[in-house]
Amino acid sequence: MGHEITALATERSGHATELARSAAASGAGLVIAAGGDGTVNEVMNGLVGTETPLAVLPAGTANVLAVEMRIQGGIRQAASRLHELVPRRIAAGVFRPEKGLPRYFLLMAGAGFDADIVRRVRPAWKRRLGKGAYWLASLSRMGARLPQIEVRWKGGQTQTGFAVASRVRNYGGDLEIARTITLLDSDLEVTAFPGGTTWPYGLYMGAVVMGFHTRLPGVISMRGDALELRPVNGGGIYVQLDGELAGQLPGRLATEPAALTLLTPADLPSRYGLD
Questions:
Q1: Which terminus of the chain, N or C, has fewer Cβ atoms within 10 Å?
Q2: pLDDT digit string (tens) for 175-193?
Q3: Every domain of the chain and the residues it spans
Q4: What is the pLDDT of residue 236?
Q5: Using omega within 30 degrees of 0 as the cis cutoff, is the peptide bond preceding 58 cis?
Q6: What is the pLDDT of residues 141-168, one digit of tens each?
Q7: Which of 7-16, 88-97, 118-127, 245-254 has the lowest mean pLDDT?
Q8: 64 close to 56: Cβ distance less than 8 angstroms
């Protein structure tokens, strides 16, 4: 039996969310997102709370979800193996700012330093350098002061210039900041790095590569299903979700269990060592 397929191109920011929401409302059996992390994020925001499954064909500047699920090759190879994937109901992260509408994330939410980098990446850099554009933007901020964020969770609090709440182990496709979280969990792994300037972040990223960053003095790593983030001195501190700007603090990060149906490899639990 064949399938009726409709290909739709996005025309503006937020359009993929509208298209996915409309597809789910019209009874689509599957929505496929062909693009990078930002495109996937927009599509999943249109599908959260519905029964319509999401599949991903990796493209764009980066596709952390494809790396996390070990989907090999480009769009053609991934499309040829869609029939091998199985639907799983997974949790989604959500950012609820004090001002503005909530927005969901599939991979990670970052507040502070990395969101500021996302804000500063120029489209021309991104087109020409790909992921290198983010490293270039990071280098341009070396030595800059970092506004501090107060992070509170059940049983603790800290101050940081950069906090990341992860739903996957990969960060940017190349690094593992989170070490214990999986897509099959229903909480967040939160890592907070101390520092009033960006100077220590070269050390932090080196330690992330080597796998011992959580043993550095002042670095906090914890698991939970909700946390509050608030600027210490007021002012705009940005938040990125899945590599795209998503507003400013103050706000709350949390998870919604069983929020989305995602097509995943059948052996995903064993890849995480859960069998």
A1: N
A2: 889 989 999 999 999 999 9
A3: 15-90+259-271, 94-257
A4: 81
A5: no
A6: 777 899 999 999 998 999 999 999 999 9
A7: 118-127
A8: no
Handedness of CA 106, 182, 213, 227 (dihedral sign): positive
* CATH fourth-level superfamily of 15-90+259-271: Probable inorganic polyphosphate/atp-NAD kinase; domain 1 (3.40.50.10330)
Do residues 110 and 162 make contact, with C-beta atoms less than 8 angstroms apart? yes
Please answer whether residues 88 and 261 qualify as being in contact, where contact means their C-beta atoms are separated by less than 8 angstroms: yes
Residue type, 19: L
Question: Can you give the pLDDT at residue 159?
Answer: 95
In the predicted structure, residue 219 carries a pLDDT above the cut 90: yes
Distances (CA, A) of 116 to 121, 239, 247, 248: 9, 8, 11, 11
Judging by beta carbons within 10 Å of its beta carbon (0-12, 13-18, 19+), is residue 12 exposed, middle or buried? Answer: exposed
- Asked if 252 and 41 touch (Cβ cutoff 8 Å), the reply is no
Calpha distance 40→17 (Å, rounded): 9
Residue 174: pLDDT over 90: no
